[in-house]
Design goal:
heterodimer; A: 210 residues; alpha/beta; Rossmann fold; two-stranded parallel sheet; 4 helices; 16% strand; B: 44 residues; alpha+beta; extended
Chain lengths: 210, 44
Amino acid sequence: MLSHGSEVIICSRSNHEIEGAINEIWDVSDIGSIQENFNNIIKKYGQIDMVVNSQGILTHSDFLDVSPEEMELVFKTNIESVFFICQYAVRYFKNNSIYGHILNICSTEGLKGTCYPYGLSKAAAVRLTQGLGKVAVRDGIIVNGIAPGATATDMMRQGDKQNWAPAYGIPSGRMCTANEIANAAVFLLSDAGRQMCGEVMVVDGGESLH
Amino acid sequence: MRFYLKKVLRKVMSQRPVEISENIVSREDLFKNKRTIVFGGVQE
């Protein structure tokens, strides 16, 4: 987004040193603070045109070991915060007659049968994107999503954090890169994607096709 | 009346077709004068 001329404000628990981007430290799993923080960002920086929900947390417990606390943390971060950020963004766009875009970063894990918190929360994010896409477009607000497959981020490092997870079973023979996910985001957030509503675009090297 | 016109304009604008004449991924001015909020950084 930065390289295409947009001003970018990253709201995250940690500081991301991305040249040209503005950082705001904000834990989105604190649901009660979302409205106030969202309003503060608009007051501080001005009109917002595009909202990207890229927050996510992945846990590794087996089904029998998942605790209520783990489930709550994953759902608060991966879907509850996405829901309320979408709600505030749609209200803001509508009240200010902005033809805004919302992009939810889901996951191919949300498209499969699953019994783990991450996949379940991402399945909810997929359904939210589809449902809201249909409703919000009536006000000229475009809501879409991306379902990345295995992507070479730190989340996918294994064990000693030095090795990438293997790319077994991915027809393209490798994991996605962050740039390949970003290219899909550029398309969906541009006016070229204005007639796509509630679409969750799969970017996974063919992994979910078998 | 103003509200009605605003509503009609919003509908027309949201439905206008867009001509794609170049590779959008390479356009540096694609999001000029736009502001984006990104929630979350790299997923953990």
